[in-house]
Amino acid sequence: MITSYKIVEHLDKKALHSYYRQMVLIRTFEERAGEQYMLGKIRGFLHLYIGEEAIAVGAMASLKPQDYVVTHYRDHGHALAKGIGAKEVMAELFGKATGTTKGMGGSMHIFDRSHNFAGGYAIVGGQLPIAVGLGLGASYRQEDRIVLCFLGDGALQEGAFHEAMNMAAIWKLPVLFLCENNLYGMGVPVSESLAKKDIYKLADAYDMPSLQVDGMDVLAMREVTQEVADRIRSGNGPYFIEAKTYRFRGHSMADPSVYRTKVEEERWHMKDPIAAYKEWLLEHHFAMEAELAAMDLSVEKEMEEAVKFAEESPNPTASALYENVYAK
Amino acid sequence: MPVITYREAVARALREGLTEDAGMFIMGEDVGAYGGAYAVTRGMLKEFGPRRIVDAPLSEAAIVGACTGAAMGGLHPVAEIMTINFTLVAMDQIVNHAAKIRYMSGGQYHAPLILRTVTGGGAQLASTHSQSFEHWFASVPGLKVVTPATPYDALGLFRAVREEEDPVLFIEHILLYSARGEVPDERYTVPIGKADVKRKGDDITIVAYSRMTPVALAAAQALEAEDIDCEVIDLRSLRPWDKETVLESVKRTGLGLVVEETWRTGGFGAEVASTIQEEAFDYLDGPVGRVAGEEVPMPYNRALEQAAIPSPEKVAAGVRKALNR
Fold first, then answer.
1. Domain containing residue B232
2. What are the extents of the domains in chain A?
3. Which chain B residue has its CA at the smallest distance from A173's CA?
4. How far, in Å, CA of A82 to CA of B265, rounded?
């Protein structure tokens, strides 16, 4: 597993600070979303990304604006890391007309075409063939564009995973499959539901290169995905990354998390990606306490505004029910 | 007017699309070197090259999903699923994804893919290769479904389908590929959602689609000898479907009979019959009749298979029953 990183020169202070702020932004967003769910303002399923922030932030830092992101239902963190406004994402969770899909998709289906965020998909594994198709389109038109496709460890158990991996590999499509292995598919440990012990080695079946990285380390994520994305961009075909991580909350807000032990949870909390990164920044003098505190404060403010915006936004009109079923 | 086969009509439609639309490509199992399981794409690999005629792995879900993704990215893919029976393993991609993209994304993305596939029985392929599921897809908002029965309609409908900005299932029939019909050289299109009165008549309205259209026409022809004058309507599209033409006809004839190849339970004929009874009840001289496939998995044996599929004789019997004759 790749756990360490070289401090490369292009990682300037500004970028390093932005990773911190983005991770705090995602965490705070999810905490606020959880609160609003408890207040009944957000309904349906709500899957929080708390604990996994380093993956979205580190991976997204290696993308160009024209690159597509396709993901699963635990998608708020990915949307925010791709640069979609917290206001719009929160408004979507509230089902409001100002949300990313005008209240039609909700938490599990964030889309934003202006950011080439081609969707959160809530059928496990369903997004993989679509990511392959977006890659095929980019390749067909010879565009400088790659697809970052997030998947959970549960998706590895679906047939669509095999079909998509095989297709991407035989046609050498520009797709980066990024598996967020948080060790559980809902309540069942991956070790009990997947025959392969080291997930990243599944890619060997398709002669697709792969690696395993510490998903709790934003800089390792940043460095690894940058190298891989560059490689894909140069026409070398798809790549598979397994990022080991842990969700600090349940599968969804409806999950009491009875299937994990306190000991295991505490062990992973020790690796909290934000706390660890903060410590690293301070230790290496890339930031001062006051700078980080100021960022924390600005995120708090941004979130307050996001919740207020969502709260005050209008619901979709009744006629929206019939819009966008077809073009005409 | 030149006479061509249904197969030739579909091939001509595809060639036209590939020639006129640089974003169009065909992806499917054995569409390339092999020339398509039903020989529709024969020669196209040579003409258009492997970028446009894409032999896919045996991965129906990935074929539909990849075509959906490519369509979201601005291309115009034609996915060929060898038979409608195999769409079942791609159902998630068709129903949960392609059909939902426009709505679920609030109109930001859409997926104008054309899914060509082959429905129907009668070729002694037994129960897993002889089914008709077009009515399932026709129940899904976000999809459109067309089922041409003649070479003319196949070419004309495909041209209309190419103008669509949403996923369309273009469903051919296994026994119609060699059917011949007049197709003009001049450009025409057949609009989606518009039925065609294939035969004028005054005594009863027979509503059919796909291969049940020629079956209904054969029955109508035979019934002439009994002095029964049938009107035969070919729906051509199942979603959207042309209620107006059907209702107008039934209001005139006073009787309706729906004919379909699939199982009776939950078939598209139920939708048509129910609509007639809801919207033209006062014009009816009797209940709307139904002729459908037998409620059994399709057997291999030729005689048993024929007994399971609606025939001109069964349709004629349905007409007589409706007319109390």
1. 196-323
2. 13-309
3. B66
4. 48
Inter-chain residue contact B65 with A128, CB threshold 8 Å: yes
Cis peptide before B240, with omega less than 30 degrees from 0? yes
Other Cβ atoms within 10 Å of B274 Cβ, number: 12
Contacts of B64 in chain A (CB under 8 A): 129
Q: Is the ipTM of this complex over 0.85?
A: yes
CB B59 within 8 A of CB A168: no
Nearest-Cα distance to chain B for A131, in Å, is 6
For residue B40, tell me if it sits in a domain.
yes
pLDDT at B217 over 90: yes
Q: Are residues B290 and B262 in contact, defined by beta-carbon separation less than 8 angstroms? A: no
Query: Which residues of B are identified as catalytic?
Result: 129
The domain that holds B162 is classified in CATH as 3.40.50.970
Q: Which amino acid is it at B267? A: G
* A36 vs A167: CA distance, rounded Å: 41
Written in H, E and C, the secondary structure of B64-81 is HHHHHHHHHCCCEEEEEE
Of A103, A105, A126, the CB nearest to B93: A126
Which of helix, strand or coil describes residue A125?
coil
B51, B57, B89 member nearest A170 (Cβ):
B57
Test B104 with A126 for CB contact under 8 angstroms. Answer: no
In CATH, what number is assigned to the domain containing residue B234? Answer: 3.40.50.920
Interface of B with A (CB under 8 A): 25, 51, 56-57, 59, 61-62, 64-75, 77, 89, 92-93, 96-97, 101-110, 141-142, 144, 164-166
Same domain, B90 and B234: no
Of B69, B92, B104, the CB nearest to A137: B69
CB pair distance less than 8 Å for A164 and B64 = no
Tell me if B191 is assigned to some domain.
no
The count of CB pairs under 8 A between chains A and B is 143
Structure confidence at residue B235 (pLDDT): 98
* Interval B159-182: pLDDT, tens: 999 999 999 999 999 999 999 999
A104·B109 Cβ contact <8 A: no
- Number of structural domains (chain B) is 2
Structural domain includes residue B11: yes
* Reported pTM: 0.96
CA atoms within 13 A on the CB side of A212: 13
Confidence check: pLDDT of A103 > 90: yes
Query: Was domain A13-309 assigned CATH 3.40.50.970?
Result: yes
User: At which residue do the structure tokens 């460890």 appear?
Assistant: A153
